């Protein structure tokens, strides 16, 4: 009977790990963003950088999602109203007191501490090193997803001579 104890503990730990992973990526709820933002047009045609819209990327842990004023700084309701349904949604939101109710879809695992400021401002890593698919997206992702697998993080840390000790990222 003494040998049963360790197997029960190992089984419980494995079940816990599966539950954590399943909780982050297993159930992928479909989301609909308030505006069908087209990264391909903004990054490709308008030549905007990520930081033009995600203004907190260099100064905060989270890059943040653009507020309505960021959009309205470029899009003028007086000149563009009625020309595109997504812009009309922006203009309608712009008249209200609230912000654009974006739904966050790019996530990290709950046990991972990731700071955009540390990676963008301090390490000078380009956003597209991690968010590789963004420039080609013609519509927002419709499911919550992990930004990148841990193996990619480790390869980047090794390539840049940054510690791969677990506690550097995992809390």
Brief characterization of the structure:
With 171 residues, the protein is an all-alpha fold. It contains 9 helices and 2 strands, in the order ααααααβαβαα.
Task: Walk me through this protein's architecture.
With 171 residues, the chain is an all-alpha fold. It has helices at 4-26, 39-45, 50-53, 68-72, 77-80, 85-95, 116-122, 150-159, 166-169; strands spanning 106-107, 145-146. It has a two-stranded parallel ribbon. Helix 7 links the parallel strand 1 and strand 2 (145-146). The longest helix is centred in the N-terminal third of the chain and has 23 residues, at 4-26.
Helical percentage: 40-55%
Distance separating the two termini: 35 Å
Category from helices, strands and their pairing: mainly alpha
How many DSSP helices? 9
In percent, how much strand structure appears in the residues?
under 5%
Strands of the widest sheet, in order across it, are: 1-2
Cα shape: elongated
**Biggest sheet record:** 2 strands, parallel
- Rounded to the nearest angstrom, the radius of gyration is 20 Å
Unreliable runs: none
Order of helices and strands: HHHHHHEHEHH
Mean pLDDT: 87
**What is the total tally of β strands?**
2
